[in-house]
């Protein structure tokens, strides 16, 4: 099976190891992974801030970059939700681009969704001795309605004890530019999230969205919490052999 | 008209610094939202109910003109007086005139957000009238000289200790902070007010077009006393609060109470058909229905029309993480939380309310819980777009997103930007993290560290590794 990776800007620049983990896990599962170089950011920061024209420029570029792809996989619930819901909406007045947008939406999968629902894999033989909790990001559960897939995959990781996170459906306070624009409110939200994470006694916080992990991780570092952040793909890569 | 003497940032600062708010709001919010979830689960198929309720609201709003006409005809048929108020001040004038004609001295009110919207109490008091709120929560905030901070729980931000202090002042003796004693005191005090009032003013949860009835949903019995004891009853409604028939009312009431408080049904659901008819043992001698537009009809046919579906249950407030931490007053308007952030700019413009659409992380919890499926977080994005299009966005931000659009539509430039980001931001970094950034970045680093972009980006790794 041939899959093209949509890396997302955050993973590309800040967390390249997440991209490498995605590639490694997929390749171990026999997937032929490609990376169209023409891809850029999905445009969500501009879209969510009200700059639709600027968002459209980025969206067109991403649509073009993956025009010839059979299947697109991305390690971000948020960027996948942007493509699924807002790309067709952005181009609703332009039938040609709307169709192109819809066609990209139809073939784009968030990483855990692709593993569980397309590849039909639940156990990738990963191994990680630790205690962790999982952060359900808003765009995963409400944007894409992907709730069980990451937990299913994580439940099969040998040695990994998963603890349930209290208030797991609540936002971590990231919200893109919200985190910077209204940092004082965002601070309260992320602190509440962190207190809940601490209450699980987890050593690792696992997530499917690097925006959230960057927010929670950045705040934990600032406040001196010794809890590691990891993307689902990084966990699944650990000790893995097929 | 704005309620605010201080700007948004100051309101937020004040809210975040309030230790009682920090304790009271999350506590009440948890209780309300857990109740809603249980009540929704009991239905077994909440999504189908939401679908149905949304359809009913859409149909009603799409045909609002004909349902309004039907409602008005039927109210008049039963002897009620109907008044249309285009603006808030028109509604106030209508009510003032009725009070003057009746030579009224005291007015008792049951809970009504629409009268809060037109600041009715303030205007009536300026005429020398005594106005008493009879809903317990409204009574508390009236004594505290505050505005409601929640659609259905106006005093959500108050602890019982604070309530005890307020009531003790009225009583002239020290009351305990036991809920039963406080309720008993309010009941006793208010009973006298009910008996004395010349006019009762209520809101209107729903107006049933087919029978010309006003339906009130309440838990304390005060709405019944308000609408029954005084000689005149005035009901004030927003023009969108209509249901076509009692069949739709059944569904909407169920969605309202389950979403609001987690009740299958409220303690009282009161249907009022005009004033006392011959043969009736009680009821007012005169009934007036004031139908308020105040900007609502301007929303019809726009991208925001679904906001008119709102049945004021407050469920979106109860799940909102921003509301959880700042409470209702920080929003500054009569309507707070996600629906307030959508409505206030629509009703009163961006000049006073431009920050509200940004007071959201767009987490979508509001949209998920809304019983009539208003896409609340999408409407907030719509506001942000309109603000940008109408010139409300700051210039540096505009320039930044222009640059964003340009870079992201030129892959070679994007490639360079990613490459340069590590060294560029590296200047500010220590041990791989930036703790104090300039401009927009400063907002981020105010409270958290930012990782430095990696020396080798994914695309560089791929190019090197895969020799592409």
What does this structure look like?
The complex is a heterodimer of chains A (242) and B (468). Chain A is built from 13 helices and 8 strands. Chain A is α/β, with parallel strands linked by helices and 242 residues long. Chain A folds into 2 domains: 116 residues, no CATH class; 117 residues, Rossmann fold. Chain A has a 4-stranded parallel β-sheet with strand order 2-1-3-4, with helices on both faces. Chain A is globular, with a radius of gyration of 17 Å. The model of chain A has no long low-confidence stretch (mean pLDDT 97). By secondary structure, chain B is of the alpha/beta class. Among the domains of chain B are: 245 residues, NagB/RpiA/CoA transferase-like (Rossmann fold), CATH 3.40.50.10420; 52 residues, no CATH class. Chain B has 23 helices and 13 strands. In chain B, strand 11 and strand 12 form a beta hairpin. In chain B, helix 3 crosses helix 12. The radius of gyration of chain B is 26 Å and the shape is elongated. The model of chain B has no long low-confidence stretch (mean pLDDT 95).
Topology at a glance:
The complex is a heterodimer of chains A (242) and B (468).
Chain A (H helix, E strand, L loop, with lengths): L1 E4 L3 H5 L2 H13 L3 E3 L9 H5 L3 H14 L6 E3 L2 H14 L4 H13 E3 H8 L8 E9 L2 H6 L4 H8 L2 E6 L14 H4 L1 H17 L4 E4 L2 H13 L5 E4 H6 L5
Parallel strand pairs in A: 1-2, 1-3, 3-4, 5-6, 5-7, 7-8
Helix pairs in contact in A: 5-6, 7-9, 11-12
Chain B lengths: L7 H9 L2 H25 L2 H17 L1 H14 L3 E5 L2 H14 L4 E4 L3 H5 L2 H7 L3 E4 L2 H8 L16 H12 L7 H18 L2 E4 L3 E3 L4 E6 L3 H7 L3 E7 L3 E2 L2 H15 L7 E5 L13 E7 L3 H4 L15 H5 L1 H6 L10 H12 L1 H4 L11 H5 L6 H14 L5 H14 L2 H16 L2 E2 L2 E2 L4 H7 L4 E2 L6 H9 L2
Parallel strand pairs in B: 1-10, 2-3, 2-4, 4-7, 5-8, 7-10
Antiparallel strand pairs in B: 5-6, 6-9, 11-12, 12-13
Helix pairs in contact in B: 3-12, 9-10, 16-19
